[in-house]
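Problem 12. The chain below contains 243 residues. Write out its predicted structure in token notation.
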Amino acid sequence: MKRDGVSDYLRSSLKSYFGDETGEKLADLLSKTGITCFDDLIGDVPQEILELAEVDRTSFTGFLDEYGPQAIIRLKKELASLSSRIRDLESQLRWARDRIMSDLGTRTSKRASLRREIGASVGMLDALARSVRLCCEPHSPIGEDRVKAYIDVLDRVMERLRGVSAELSELEPIIRGLDRIRSLLTHHPTADDLYHLISYSISSLSDLERLVAESIPEGKILLWENILLKSELIAALCRKRDH
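Solution.
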């Protein structure tokens, strides 16, 4: 749409860049020379027109750079480049989202596996402790037949825990404690001693279950200290019973 021979877009652009008064004056002067739209500005603008509007050549060149046909071409190129970058970014975001969801699923699966293996190990050790309590004389050495059966249970528990220890380094002191109990069994400890050692291992695994679920750092530290303390206690008791 044109007013006084100058397109509304050209007039509004001039006023936006040079201000209302100068822009309006320059629009009127341009219309008198037959310049009515941006396409007409591809040719040179007479110097006297600019002088009458009190606009220097450098300012007018800046106006053309920002609003003229070359600016539109440049803007189109920038938009095309921006669209390309947006598509690349969207691809990266999709990849990152898929990776995060995959990692989240893997971590969730690993946590479930940890809880499952720890829970199964606690159950096996609890059954072992009940067997010691119910089937053996408290102050008598464990018989040879039961030593072999109990070692087999401990081996199976340690195998389960070692299978997930790469995901949870806090299992290592507990596994070491179980291995010490296994070694002590070959020296036929009393049923009472074995029961207490197994009970400490069960307690450590219970602490570990809570540590995995704990979200507060202070709570994690306390549980980890408990696990280490019980591990040291098992080591000390095994050394004492072994001599």
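Discussion. The two ends are 106 Å apart (CA to CA). Students who got a different answer should revisit the alignment rule from Section 12.3.
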